[in-house]
Specification:
The complex is a heterodimer.
Chain A (H helix, E strand, L loop, with lengths): L1 E3 L32 H14 L7 E5 L14 E4 L5 H11 L4 E7 H7 L1 H10 L4 E6 L34 H8 L3 E6 L3 H13 L4 E6 L11 H4 L3 E3 L10 H9 L5 E8 L6 H4 L19 H9 L3
Parallel strand pairs in A: 2-3, 2-4, 4-5, 5-7, 6-7, 8-9
Antiparallel strand pairs in A: 6-9
Chain B lengths: L4 E10 L3 H14 L3 E7 L6 E11 L12 E4 L2 H7 L8 E5 L13 E5 L1 H5 L6 H12 L5 H11 L4 H21 L15 E4 H12 L1 E6 L6 H14 L2 E4 L3 H14 L2 E6 L1 H17 L3 E7 L16 H5 L9 E3 L4 H18 L2 E7 H4 L2 E4 L15 E3 L31 E2 L9 E3 L17 H21 L5 E2 L6 E6 L3 H15 L3 E6 L1 E3 L3 H9 L4 E5 L5 H10 L5 E4 L8 H12 L5 E2 L8
Classes of the chains: A alpha/beta, B alpha/beta.
Chain lengths: 306, 601
C-alpha cells in the first residue's frame, strides 16, 4: 500500500525549529577536533539555508571515509553508501527524482581513488549534481595511508620511504573530464567556501567543489599553517572562469601560490536530465509515477512478437 | 509419430545469415500455430567460427530442442562434416552442391544437393534463403506465409531486398518439389497463431509489466538482449535506460533510483554480477528493493561467454559480505521469466530486500513460441509499505504524518518490515546508511558499537524472510509418487527433464517423477524433504561441474541425493543425455553421469 504524506502544518507550529538549526543533524560529528570537515559541514548548512531550501528537498549522498560521515550530521535526506559509489548512487537517485537537490560529499580517496571511474563518467554525462570533495590528501579513517592526492614524496604509513607516485590534480581533471562548474575552496576560508557551494548547488550541471580540508591527525604536511600563506582567491585576481586555457593553467598551479575559487564554468551544455525525454512527459519525477502498462501499449508489445 | 514434431538445424559461419533464416522459419512455424523451441550454439566472434541453430517445432508445447534433427542445412563443409553422421533414417540434408561435399550418411538419410549458384542469382548470402524454401517444401508447408515473414525480416532493407529474397526462396521451393522427396506427412496447422520470444525479451517485458521505471546495464553476453529491448522501448514506455561505465556503477545507480521510489532493475552475467556483489549487500542493509537478473554463462572469469551453464548458484546465494535477506529465484522458461519478474518486484517491495534472478543463456537467448494470451501485462502491483509524496489514496499507515518526529525508517516491527519513505517526502528525514544503524538510521558506530542494537537490527532484517517464505509457491512433484526414480532439477532444465521423464516411460518403461525447484531462497526445506524422503532413488540434474544445487540441497535439508547427472561442456542437456544417464544409474553402474555432447565435436 502506498501512503499520502499529509499537507504541511503552518510554519507557526510551536515545534518549528529556528532557522539556523534547520539543517543541524541529530548526531554531533565525531571528527577529530580541528578537522577541516567541521568547516565544510557548517558551510554546507549555511549554503542550504541561504538558498532557501527545505530539508526534505535535499538528499546528501556520501561514500565511505571520515568525510563521508557528513550526511549523518546534517538534517536532510541522506544516503551513506559504499566506498567510492556515491556518484553512481546519486545519479540513479537524481534521474529517479530530478526535482531533488542531490549533493554528494566524500573524500579524496573515495572520489578520486576507488570511485575514480564513476567520477569520470558522471562528469562527462553532466548530471545535475553537486560534488563536494573534502580533500585532505590522506586516508584518515584507516589511520594515515597515501591517497590519490598525496603529494609525491609524502611519507605515510603505507609509504614509509615516501610516495613515488604522482598525485591526481582534480581541478584540471574535472575541467577536461566534462564538469561544467569546477571550484576549489579551503576550510580556513568558510565564507568563500559557502559562496563556492551556493554557486555549485545553483549551477545547472555537474559541479565539483574540491575543498582543502586538512587532516590534523594524519597529514602533517598540508596543514592550515601550510595552506594559509599560499591560498590566493581567483576572484581577487580577475580570473575569467569561461577561459578554458587560463582555467587549466590556474588549476595546475601548485607551490608557493595555490589558487582557490571558481576555475571553470560553462552554462551552454544541457544536463543529462534535460536530454532525456522520459523525464519531460509532464508526469513529474519517475519515482512517483503510476506503474503499469496501458492496454494499447501492451497490445503493441505483443504484436511485435507475432 | 503420433504428433508432428520435427527439428530443423542450420549451421555455418557467423555472418552467414543463420540467425535471420532461423527467425524466418521460427515465425512461419509459430504463425502456423506450431509450438517451438530454438537454441543457437554460437561462438563469441562476429564473423567466422561455427554456429549451429536448431529449431524444433511441434503440435504440442516443447521446451527443449529434443534429440533429433529432421532437416539439416549445412552452409559450409565444416558443418556438414561435424553433423551429418548424427542424422537418422528419414532425415534430410540440404546443401550447396558446388560448395559442400557430403560424407557417407546413415541409411535412409536423404541428401538434397542444390545448385545454389543458379538459384541465388549472384546473391552470395542467399543460399540460406534458397535452402529455407526447400525446407518448407519438404515439410509440406505452402509458400504463402513466407512473403509476409520475409517482409517483416527485411523491410528495413527495402522492397527490392524483400522481393529478391522471396524469389530465391520460391526458386528453392520449386527446385525441391522437382528433385527431392518430401516428408511423408504434411505439417498441419495449430489451433491459433503463436508469437516468438526470447527469454531476455520476456525478462524485459516482465520488468515493463511490473512497472520498471529505471533500467541500467553494462553490455555482457548473454544478458545484453534485456538491455536492447529496454533501450528500444524506453521512450515509448517511459523507462529511464542507462548504459553505465561498469556493473559496479550499474547496481549502485539502480539502488539510487530504487531508493528514490522507482521500480529499478538490471541484468548481467556472472562476471558483472560479481562486480555488483558489494552493492547488493547495500540494498540488503539499507532495505532497498531492487531486481537483478544473472543470465548465467559458463565461468569462471571470462569463461565461455556464448555457452550456457548453471554455475552461479553459490555466487548469488553468497553475494556480498555478511548476512542479509535476499530472494533468489530461477525461472524455468521464457514465459516463466515474464511472470516471475512482476511477482518478484512485489515481494521485493513488500519485504524491502534485493531480488536475484538466475536465468541462463539457454532460456535467456533461447527462443520459444508464446501464446499471446499468456502475456498478461495487467499484473498485480503491490508496493508494500511505501510512503510516496503523492501517494495513491491510502492513508492508513500511521507513520505518514508531516514532520512526524517519531518516524523511524528502520523501525523494529514484528514483521521486520518498516514503512519506507522516499527522499522528497516532507517530515520523514532520515539517512540510509550502509554502516549498521539504529531504527532511526543513526550509525551505531557513532556512539559505540552497541551489541544489543546490532543484534536487534540483524534480527529485524532477517525476520522479514519468515513471512516471505509463506508467500512463495513450494515445488510440486510431477508424476507418480511411487516412481522408481525422482529427478530433481532447478531453473532452465525443467523442460528437458520433463521430456526425459516422458521418454523414460515411453521408450524404456522406466517410471520416473520430477521435482523442479524454482524458488531457491528462501528454500522450502520442509516440503522438499518430505517429497524426497519418500523417493526410491533421487538423481539431481544440473548444468555445472560441482553439483551446486546438490550441495545447497544438502545444506538446507541434510538430504544427500543418490545420484547426479551433470553437464559443464557449455551445451545444454538433450533428453537422451538424461535418459541414458538414468538407465546407467538404475543399473548401478555409476552415481555420477557426465553426458558427452555429441553434436559439436
Amino acid at each position: 500500500m502506498n501512503t499520502v504524506a499529509t499537507p504541511p502544518e503552518p510554519a507557526t507550529s510551536p515545534a518549528a525549529p529556528k532557522a539556523k538549526d534547520v539543517f543541524k543533524g541529530r548526531v554531533h560529528p565525531d571528527w577529530c577536533p580541528g578537522c577541516g570537515d567541521f568547516s565544510v559541514l557548517a558551510a554546507l548548512q549555511t549554503a542550504l539555508l541561504e538558498l532557501g531550501l527545505e530539508p526534505h528537498q535535499v538528499c546528501v549522498v556520501s561514500g565511505i571515509g571520515c568525510s563521508s560521515n557528513l550526511p549523518g550530521f546534517l538534517n536532510t535526506y541522506g544516503m551513506h553508501t559504499l566506498h567510492g559509489r556515491s556518484l553512481a548512487v546519486a545519479t540513479g537517485l537524481k534521474l529517479a527524482n530530478h526535482g531533488l537537490k542531490v549533493i554528494c560529499t566524500g573524500g579524496d580517496g573515495d572520489g578520486y581513488g576507488i570511485g575514480g571511474n564513476h567520477f569520470l563518467h558522471t562528469m562527462r554525462r553532466n548530471v545535475n549534481l553537486t560534488y563536494i570533495v573534502m580533500d585532505n590528501q590522506i586516508y584518515g579513517l584507516t589511520t594515515g595511508q597515501v591517497s590519490p592526492t598525496s603529494v609525491k614524496g609524502m611519507i605515510t604509513k603505507s609509504t614509509p620511504y615516501g610516495s613515488v607516485e604522482n598525485p591526481i590534480n582534480p581541478i584540471p581533471l574535472a575541467i577536461v573530464g566534462g564538469a561544467t562548474y569546477v571550484a576549489r575552496a579551503f576550510s580556513g576560508k568558510q565564507r568563500h567556501m559557502i559562496e563556492m557551494m551556493k554557486g555549485a548547488i545553483q549551477h545547472n550541471g555537474f559541479a565539483l567543489v574540491d575543498v582543502f580540508s586538512p587532516c590534523v591527525t594524519y597529514n602533517k604536511d598540508n596543514t592550515y599553517q601550510w595552506f594559509n600563506p599560499r591560498i590566493k582567491l581567483l576572484e581577487d585576481q580577475g580570473h575569467d572562469p569561461t577561459d578554458l586555457h587560463r582555467a587549466l593553467d590556474r588549476g595546475y598551479q601548485w607551490g608557493e601560490e595555490i589558487p582557490i575559487g571558481v576555475f571553470w564554468r560553462r552554462t551552454d551544455l544541457p544536463t543529462l536530465e534535460e536530454q532525456e525525454p522520459v523525464l519531460h512527459t509532464g508526469e513529474g519525477p519517475l519515482a512517483w509515477r503510476k506503474l503499469g502498462i496501458a492496454s494499447d501499449q501492451a497490445k503493441a508489445l505483443i504484436q511485435e512478437l507475432l | 509419430m503420433n504428433r508432428t514434431d520435427f527439428a530443423v538445424a542450420i549451421g555455418g559461419e557467423n555472418g552467414q545469415g543463420i540467425a535471420s533464416t532461423g527467425d524466418i522459419l521460427a515465425r512461419i512455424f509459430a504463425r502456423r500455430g506450431f509450438h517451438l523451441n530454438a537454441y543457437n550454439a554460437y561462438q563469441s566472434i562476429i564473423r567466422g567460427g561455427h554456429t549451429f541453430l536448431t529449431i524444433r517445432a511441434s503440435e504440442a508445447p516443447v521446451g527443449c530442442v529434443g534429440d533429433k534433427i529432421d532437416v539439416f542445412i549445412p552452409l559450409n563443409q565444416d558443418t556438414m562434416d561435424r553433423h551429418l553422421h548424427l542424422l537418422k533414417t528419414g532425415a534430410c540434408a540440404i546443401y550447396d552442391q558446388e560448395k559442400v561435399k557430403p560424407g557417407r550418411p546413415a541409411d535412409g538419410v536423404q541428401l538434397c544437393p542444390m545448385p545454389m549458384k543458379e538459384l541465388i542469382r549472384g546473391n552470395k548470402l542467399a543460399a540460406n534463403t534458397a535452402a529455407l524454401g526447400a525446407t518448407l517444401q519438404l515439410l509440406g508447408i505452402e509458400l504463402d506465409p513466407l512473403e509476409a515473414v520475409v517482409t517483416r525480416q527485411f523491410k528495413k532493407k527495402g522492397d527490392a531486398v524483400v522481393a529478391e529474397n522471396v524469389a530465391i526462396a520460391r526458386a528453392g521451393y520449386d527446385y525441391a518439389a522437382q528433385h527431392f522427396t518430401a516428408f511423408p506427412w504434411k505439417t498441419p496447422r495449430g489451433a491459433k497463431p503463436l508469437g516468438v520470444i526470447t527469454g531476455n525479451q520476456a525478462t524485459a517485458m516482465g520488468g515493463a509489466a511490473a512497472g520498471v521505471k529505471f533500467y541500467a546495464a553494462y553490455p555482457m553476453s548473454p544478458s545484453t538482449g534485456v538491455l536492447m529491448w529496454m533501450a528500444a522501448h524506453a521512450r515509448q514506455l517511459g523507462i529511464m535506460v542507462r548504459q553505465v561505465e561498469d556493473e559496479i556503477g550499474v547496481m549502485n545507480m539502480v539502488i539510487g533510483a530504487a531508493h528514490a521510489g522507482c521500480r529499478s532493475m538490471c541484468a548481467t552475467s556472472g562476471g558483472g554480477f560479481a562486480l555488483m556483489s558489494e552493492a547488493i549487500g547495500m540494498a540488503g542493509m539499507i532495505e532497498t528493493p531492487i531486481v537483478c537478473v544473472d543470465v548465467q554463462r559458463g565461468g569462471p572469469a571470462t569463461g565461455i561467454p556464448t555457452k550456457t551453464e548453471q554455475g552461479d548458484l553459490w555466487q548469488v546465494l553468497g553475494a556480498g559480505q555478511g548476512d542479509y535477506p535476499r530472494i533468489v529465484v530461477a525461472p524455468c522458461n521464457q514465459l516463466d521469466l515474464f511472470h516471475t519478474i512482476p511477482e518478484l518486484f512485489n515481494l521485493c517491495d513488500q519485504y524491502q530486500c534485493p531480488g536475484l534472478v538466475l536465468s541462463d543463456l539457454l532460456i535467456g537467448e533461447g527462443t520459444s513460441s508464446i501464446d499471446p494470451a499468456d502475456l498478461d501485462f495487467n499484473v498485480k502491483i503491490d508496493r508494500g509499505e511505501l510512503i510516496l509524496p503523492n501517494g495513491n489514496g491510502d492513508a492508513l499507515v500511521p507513520s505518514s504524518g508531516y514532520n512526524d518526529s517519531t518516524y523511524l525508517r528502520f523501525k523494529n516491527t514484528e514483521s521486520g518490515i518498516s514503512p519506507r519513505a522516499v527522499p522528497g517526502v516532507p517530515g520523514h528525514i532520515f539517512v540510509a546508511a550502509t554502516d549498521e544503524h539504529d531504527e532511526d538510521g543513526t550509525l551505531i558506530s557513532d556512539e559505540f558499537t552497541n551489541p544489543h542494537k546490532r543484534r536487534l537490527m540483524v534480527e529485524k532484517r532477517a525476520r522479514k524472510m519468515k513471512a516471505l517464505a509463506q508467500q512463495i509457491t513450494p515445488p510440486r512433484l510431477v508424476g507418480p509418487e511411487n516412481a522408481a526414480v525422482t529427478l530433481v532439477g532447478w531453473g532452465s532444465t525443467q523442460a528437458v527433464i520433463r521430456e526425459a521423464v516422458e521418454n523414460l516411460a515411453g521408450e524404456e518403461g522406466i517410471v520416473a517423477n520430477h521435482l523442479h525447484i524454482k524458488w531457491l531462497a528462501p528454500f522450502h526445506a520442509a516440503e522438499v524433504s518430505r517429497v524426497l524422503s519418500r523417493s526410491k532413488q533421487v538423481i539431481i540434474v544440473e548444468n555445472n561441474y560441482s553439483g551446486q544445487f546438490a550441495r545447497y540441497l544438502r545444506s538446507e535439508t541434510g538430504f544427500d541425493a543418490q545420484g547426479h547427472i551433470r553437464k559443464y561442456d557449455g551445451e545444454p542437456f538433450m533428453p537422451h543425455h538424461i535418459v541414458e544417464a538414468v538407465k546407467e544409474q538404475l543399473a548401478r553402474k555409476t552415481r555420477l553421469s557426465v553426458p558427452v555432447h555429441e553434436v559439436i565435436a
